[in-house]
Amino acid sequence: MTELLILALAGFAVGTLGTLIGAGGGFIMVPVLLMAYPSLPPAVITAISMAVVALNAISGSVAYARARRIDYKAGVLFALYTIPGSVLGVFTVQHVSVALFHVLFGILLLLLAVYLFMKKSGPAKSLTQVAGKHTTTITDRHGVSYTYSYDRRKGIVISVLVGFFSPVLGIGGGIIHVPAMVQLLHFPMHIATATSHFILAVMATVTVVTHAVNGSYADHHVQMMILGLCLGVIPGAQLGAYLSHRLQSGLIIRLLAVSLALVGLRMLLL
């Protein structure tokens, strides 16, 4: 019972922060599980993380849908291109050693953190500067309108890569997708976090189904761990979506960068 309560509290924290920054929370879940359960292999850790990330993403997406901040056209397109990579990633992680897993995970997070800290926001591009790219306008529940343009081909390439690395590292992909959508595709931060969560809900669900078919959830203790974490993730995701409407995009980016740096350093020191 004590373990279940601790897992629920951890799930609540993961759900809140993961939804707030549109990352799903896997980047927190994986190192926490590695430290709490060092005997579990990376394949099991990532399988547990992806199950929690999937539920977190679905719960958070419902909240973001109510806020009308999801770009469904981009979300469906990018989600479809994450699926082949996510299936391949599930089978790849079974052949990754614990030591290599720690190094890859830590380096990836540190690089993303440094990029976000160093990247300076340039002047907004006008629609004439991005002629030929897909332009869209979204008006959210609060009456705020967002008009932006993005390169679909670039988004597809990013989505394929995210689809592969997400199950390999068990991070869900939002931790990569959000910075990429903001910095490379020029999505507004609030639209990027919401749309990334929608993409993550689709991709993580496919990953979980693949893990289930592969037998990753057959162990009873693994099932109980997932149950405990999910009990906290659902309300945490709702809180994270609520807070996202009340924080400035610059603050969300800084929270994302700090979180990446701290977790990346911890992973390299394990």
Strand percentage, roughly? under 5%
SS elements, strand count: 2
Our count of helices gives 10
As a percent range, the share of helical residues equals over 70%
* Biggest sheet details: 2 strands, antiparallel
Cα-based radius of gyration, to the nearest Å: 17 Å
The neighbouring-strand order within the major sheet is 1-2
Unreliable runs: 121-132
Which characteristics define this entry?
270 residues; mainly alpha; two-stranded antiparallel ribbon; 10 helices; 2 strands
Task: Report what the structure shows.
With 270 residues, this protein is mostly helical. The protein has one domain (2-121, 129-269). Helix content is 73%, strand content 4%. The chain contains ten helices and two strands. It has helices spanning 2-20, 26-36, 42-67, 72-92, 98-118, 152-169, 174-183, 189-213, 220-244, 249-269; strands at residues 134-139, 145-150. The chain has a two-stranded antiparallel ribbon with strand order 1-2. Helix 1 (2-20) packs parallel to helix 9, helix 3 (42-67) runs parallel beside helix 9 (220-244) and helix 5 packs antiparallel against helix 10 (249-269). The model is unreliable at 121-132 (pLDDT under 50).
SSE blueprint:
Elements: H1 2-20, H2 26-36, H3 42-67, H4 72-92, H5 98-118, E1 134-139, E2 145-150, H6 152-169, H7 174-183, H8 189-213, H9 220-244, H10 249-269
Structure summarized in a few sentences:
The chain has 270 residues and is mainly alpha-helical. Helix content is 73%, strand content 4%.
